[in-house]
Amino acid sequence: MIRPLLYYGCEGWTLNKKEESVINSFERKLLRRIYGPIKENGIWRIRYNGKPRTRWIDAVEEDAKKLMGVRNWKRAAQDRGIRGLMRKAKARHRALAP
């Protein structure tokens, strides 16, 4: 549907894999825009391509689990015992670093 419009007047083009990938992703993006959101399990959501973006807070939580061994970092930060946890995290980081 969209591909003929993109290729109009370009009979002599030779496409490599990267250019074809760019055209395919453009076509998918346009089709998502045309068809709009979808209803899944009774909830409307926007169509997306691939995995969702990582949020900053997700990275903080992952680092808190990995470096400090803390699951609920917000509560730990409010407990004023955060300095001790930070020292432990630095020590663990030094131990894990090559």
The count of strands amounts to: 2
Main sheet, how many strands, which sense, barrel?
2 strands, antiparallel
CA gyration radius, whole angstroms: 24 Å
Shape: elongated
Tell me the β content. Answer: 5-15%
Could you state the order of secondary-structure elements as H and E? Answer: HHEEHHH
- Counting H and I runs of at least 4 residues, what is the number of helices? 5
Q: Which residues form runs of ≥5 with pLDDT under 50?
A: none
Structural class: mainly alpha
Count up the domains. Answer: 2
- In helices, the fraction of residues equals 55-70%
| Mean pLDDT metric | 76
Protein name: Endonuclease-reverse transcriptase
Describe this structure in words.
By secondary structure, the protein is mainly alpha-helical. It folds into two domains: about 5-45, no CATH class; about 55-95, no CATH class. About 60% of the residues lie in helices and about 5% in strands. It contains five helices and two strands, in the order H-H-E-E-H-H-H. The protein has helices at about 5, 15-35, 55-70, 75-80, 80-95; strands at about 40, 45. It has a two-stranded antiparallel sheet. Strand 1 (about 40) and strand 2 (about 45) form a beta hairpin. The longest helix has 19 residues, at about 15-35. It is elongated, with a radius of gyration of 24 Å. The chain starts with a helix and ends with a helix. About 0% of the residues are buried. The model has no long low-confidence stretch (mean pLDDT about 75). This is Endonuclease-reverse transcriptase.
